[in-house]
Amino acid sequence: MNEQHKYRSTDKMSDLICDNYSLLMVMSRFGLSLGFGDKSVKDVCEAQGVDCPTFLAVANFISEEQYSYSGKESDFSISALMDYLKRAHAYFLDFNLPAIRRKLIEAIDCSGSNDVAYLILKFFDEYAKEVRRHMEYENQAVFTYVEQLLQGRLSDEYNIATFASKHNQIDTKLKELKNIIIKYYPEKENNNLLNAVLFDIFNCEQDLATHCQVEDYMFVPAVAQIERKLKDEQ
Ligand SMILES: [Fe+2]
Ligand SMILES: [Fe+2]
């Protein structure tokens, strides 16, 4: 990390979180827990066995308007970034999406006569399935490939450019779901529950978009660089 970045390793971890609360998610996906008092980012990471440059690279990526991969291998660790992405997948699939589904059921009238309610739930389930397919493919195919790459093995059949070219945005369908709810859900006296779930969907959409950007702009170029290096060595 050099001076031009927003956050540095000597900053207090608590200042980072208060500056941008979405970094709470980043922290937990790195396996960092709260209760760090006034410790610096570096000390918190060291105490909890987390790769500090990678944590800072992601925190800065998320908080800065512009990012371009520097090409420096020392900027972050690909395997630490992969751990982070895997934990993010588990968060979306095992926690966030099921929680949104539960809240949706609570908020909409699913008694059977309401066609829009049925449509919303069906749409959501299809969406969750799509996200699962996307993330399981990354966990299984992509990360396995990259782990081999990190051990110095190139593949004849696969490269990261293939993944990048097919890496479709998964937040589009969530936008549609939001629109169905906003535009067509029948009016009721009290919309508190429905509004709460809409807030969750807005958050999830942003979270997923950022997740995909970390993959496209940090992960993919770093992996492509390893591929080039290995090819040159051959
Ligand atoms: Fe992903
Ligand atoms: Fe992805």
How would you describe this protein?
This is Hemerythrin HHE cation binding domain protein. InterPro entries: Hemerythrin-like (IPR012312). Residues 83-222 form the Hemerythrin-like domain. This protein has 234 residues and is an all-alpha fold. The protein has two domains: 13-63, no CATH class; 78-233. It has nine helices and no strands. The protein starts with 12 loop residues before the first helix and ends with a helix. The site of one fe (ii) ion has 5 residues, from helix 6 and helix 9.
What order do the helices and strands come in, and which of them pair?
Layout: H1 13-19, H2 23-29, H3 41-47, H4 52-63, H5 78-107, H6 115-150, H7 160-166, H8 172-184, H9 192-233
Bound molecules: fe (ii) ion (FE2) (2 copies).
The total number of structural domains is 2
Give the helix tally.
9
Helix-strand sequence: HHHHHHHHH
Mean pLDDT: 90
Strand content: under 5%
Domain Hemerythrin-like: 83-222
InterPro entries: Hemerythrin-like
Pfam families: Hemerythrin
Protein name: Hemerythrin HHE cation binding domain protein
Q: Would you kindly provide a brief summary of this structure?
A:
With 234 residues, this protein is mainly α. It has helices at residues 13-19, 23-29, 41-47, 52-63, 78-107, 115-150, 160-166, 172-184, 192-233.
Features:
single chain, 234 residues, mainly alpha, 0% strand, binds fe (ii) ion, Hemerythrin HHE cation binding domain protein
